[in-house]
Amino acid sequence: MSTPHSQPLDFWVDIVRHGADPRCTVTSRCMAVGESEPHWVEVYDLVNDDQMLPLATRGHRLFRKVFSVGMRDLLRKARDVARQDARVRILLAYPSDPILHALPWETLHDGSVYLAVADYTSIARYLRQSRPVKPLTVEPPLRALATTASPANQATLDLDREISDLRAHFDRFPLYVARLESRPHIGLRQLRQAFGVAATDGEPFHIWHHAGHGETSKDAVSYLLLEDENGKISASRVLDSLEMDELRLVVLNVCFGADRCGLTTLLAEINVPATLGFSASVTDYHAVAFANTFYRTLLGDSASVDWAVREARRTLMASGGDAWSTAVLFLRTVQAQFFTRSRR
Question: Cβ(8)–Cβ(86) under 8 Å?
Answer without folding.
Answer: yes
